Amino acid sequence: MDQLKLELLFQIIGIGSASGLVYKDNALWIIGDNSGFLYEYHMDSKDLNRHPLIENPSENILKKDKPDFEAITHFGEDLYIFGSGSTEKRNKMVQINVADKKIITTNDLGDLYAVMQSFGKIKPEDFNLEGAIYNGKSWYLLNRGNGSATKNVLFTIEGENLTDQFSVLSNDYKLPKIKGVRTSFTDAVLVDNTIYFLATAEDTVSTYEDGEVLGSIIGSIDLKTMKIKFTKKISDSHKFEGLTLYSQSSEKIEFLLCEDKDTEVLETDIYKLSIDLN
User: Distance (Å, rounded) from C-alpha 36 to C-alpha 61?
Assistant: First the structure.
């Protein structure tokens, strides 16, 4: 796991504050935490399309009003997009079909988030969902521990739905520090029986206010034991908030990453992270 290579792959003009992405059929599906759109970027043609996730969407929604879409995952032909839950306006989960680009359902997950806070012993002001995984049976949702309590928690949720028929398990993690600041989960993706995650060190004790970015790490968690297998720093300056599988072989695994620059500039850099498995 010592051989890692991070490289800038390309830049997309028209997307700002990218907070999550999914790679599927040579296209990227990207969300931004300031935006009310789902973005569809075709890597061959470089075409960029926008699909509304809320009524009257815009590119740069005021911080106090934004739905704060921070996590995206997919299963089959559906994408699932989650608000962070860091305020009452940020509790939405949108399910959208990638074939016809139509919203299937929009749910308020306030009840689920309240149970997660109670079960994970997380104060409302420290709750900040930033990663989501769905394998068709179980959901894995990650709380970013960038609040004062540094509660990095991986939740496992099972049941009929996420609104009123579910069960919750949780695992807490003490992630490495960068320059004296604890890193905190920013995204994750499931590959076989391993959860790969990103975590960033940001010099703030608030889930609402941004701070100085001190770097990011990549790590992995064994899905069966829920133990961390490895962590490694990949940047001293980037706030990576999106992680998706790009390719894999017996020798190497490649991910695509996006960066949240916490600005209103509609530019998004896409990076490729390669990890040698031998």
Answer: 8
